[in-house]
Amino acid sequence: MSVDPRGRRIAVVADSLLEQLLDELGAAGFGIIQLPPAGLDAPTTAAWLEQVAEHVTEFRRNDYEVVLASDGLYDGELAALELPQYAIQPPSTSRLIPDT
Amino acid sequence: MSRKVAFIAHCLLNQNAKVEGGAKRPGMWEPVIDLLRERDYVIRQMPCPELAFGGARRFWGVREQFDTQLYREHCRRLAKLVAAVMQQHTTAGDDVVLIGVDSSPTMGVDFTPSAPHWAGQPNIVEDDSTLVRGDGIFIEELKAELDARGLPLPRSTGIRHWFADYDPDEELRRLEAVLA
Description:
The complex is a heterodimer of chains A (100) and B (180). By secondary structure, chain A is of the alpha/beta class.
């Protein structure tokens, strides 16, 4: 095996934000754990969140950085993990600078 | 309105889940993620059975080591979750595909690593496992769970970026055939 380039940083990301944040998180070297989409039945959602919690616990046990990019849908269920919020970057303002 | 949905191995979106030494990128495996986005696929990330079971510090492993009753029970629990999500998509008329990892004893779709002699002290300097035809253990359990629900395994293939003769162009053609 070669040198392992993993970023050792992970964002737990709301399904509704995934597409919007993929480029930004990828550029910053984050791996992603996807939260369940809205609309699944309650037992399936609970099982998915249980897996997220198990993964997060294991990564944090090994000193990986884990942050949360939430849309608020599962904040209650995720509260016990006490994940720091990922600060979503504002849109670029470069287009507002007139050409010279 | 029906959608295109891709169930992908956890590590394709999170390289940190790979066994130490196994990551190819800092965060995600972009060749697959970018292709899915270009093709307007909704991504559904499957859990990583190996991470949840063996932890982030697990040793490399081959199918013969993972193929225990307890690990199969663990995979079966996760397969029930994935199958339940798949079923809700197929019931809605969505077009579902699956992308695994063909160098994995767990997530292999067409290939899985084998080394019947691997045991004991973890001092194998050179990887002398071989890739054999067959499913990984989670994929086998997922097939069984889907079968029990009367659902077929979706069109599927596995990423081969750890194959010695890995050919990105061949992989792209194979992925495109599955996504078509």
